[in-house]
Amino acid sequence: MKILVIAAHSDDEVLGMGGTIPKLEDVDILILSGGLTSRLNFIENSYNLQEAAMKAGKLLNVNNLYIEKLPDQRFDNLDFLDLVQLIEAYIKKIKPDIIYTHDYLDLNLDHRLTYQAVLTACRPMPNACVNEIYTFEIPSSSEWNFGQVFIPNTFVNITDTIKYKLEALQYYDSEMRKFPHPRSYEGIENLAKQRGSQVGCEYAEAFKLIRRIVT
Predict the structure, then answer these.
(1) What is the domain extent for residue 85?
(2) Are 201 and 194 in contact (CB under 8 A)?
(3) Considering only CA atoms, which of 63, 64, 49, 66 is closest in space to residue 15?
(4) Which one of 32, 75, 91, 212 is least enclosed by Cβ atoms within 10 Å?
(5) Do 192 and 162 touch, CB atoms closer than 8 A?
(6) How many domains does the chain have?
(7) Which domain CATH number covers 64?
(8) Each residue of 164-206: pLDDT tens digit?
(9) Closest CA to 105 of 137, 153, 70, 76
(10) Distances (CA, A) of 63 to 51, 76, 79, 129, 175
(11) Per-residue pLDDT of the chain (215 residues; tens, 9 = 90+)
(12) Is residue 46 part of a domain?
């Protein structure tokens, strides 16, 4: 099975499924906004997230990492068709069977537009390659959209791989925060424990199955 992870920003791929990726085979990652973060202090420091993404991808045993340079936190300024066609081009090139991406309920607008563009690019046309689409949760986005709850229906036991997720996040250390912020190392581990307790394991990552076509 060929798998494509489509993330809006560098670090989303690790936050969302950094424990699941090492358990999968034949994984490619597409990061749509892989340049400098929009946070002012990091722009001033010229922090290069591309290098962090490459190091994290190597640690997680990713086959291919593709990085675009769409404007961070400004996807709404783009022509939506251009975003769809960009994703379509990668789908045509990679031919994934399964796609993981952001959830439509996230607070972050870039995440929501990424989801909408992925779903549009994955219209179930005859001979389409994508048979399964899942969304992942991003701490400090999925749970902050109060009134809109991320309700997963698929879980992956990452008890034996959470160490890789936490190690990969160290490459993005400048993007991390201090506890009790959900995007802290403690917050990430606590969420994995919570998801694990829901399904009877120590640590887990949660996903929402959006569409599955059984052939």
Answers:
(1) 3-155+206-212
(2) no
(3) 49
(4) 212
(5) yes
(6) 1
(7) 3.40.50.10320
(8) 999 999 999 989 999 999 999 999 999 999 999 999 999 999 9
(9) 137
(10) 16, 30, 30, 19, 24
(11) 999 999 999 999 999 999 999 999 999 999 999 766 555 444 433 358 889 999 999 999 999 999 999 999 899 999 999 999 999 999 999 999 999 999 999 999 999 999 999 999 999 999 999 999 999 999 999 999 999 999 999 999 999 999 999 999 999 998 999 999 999 999 999 999 999 999 999 999 999 999 999 98
(12) yes
Asked if residue 160 is part of any domain, the answer here is: no
Phi and psi of 65, rounded to 5°?
Answer: -120, 125
72 located within any domain: yes
Give the residue from 10, 9, 20 showing the smallest Cα distance to 134: 20
Q: What's the pLDDT tens digit per position in 110-128?
A: 999 999 999 999 999 999 9
Answer whether residue 122 is part of any domain: yes
Q: Is 174 exposed, middle or buried (0-12, 13-18, 19+ CB in 10 A)?
A: middle
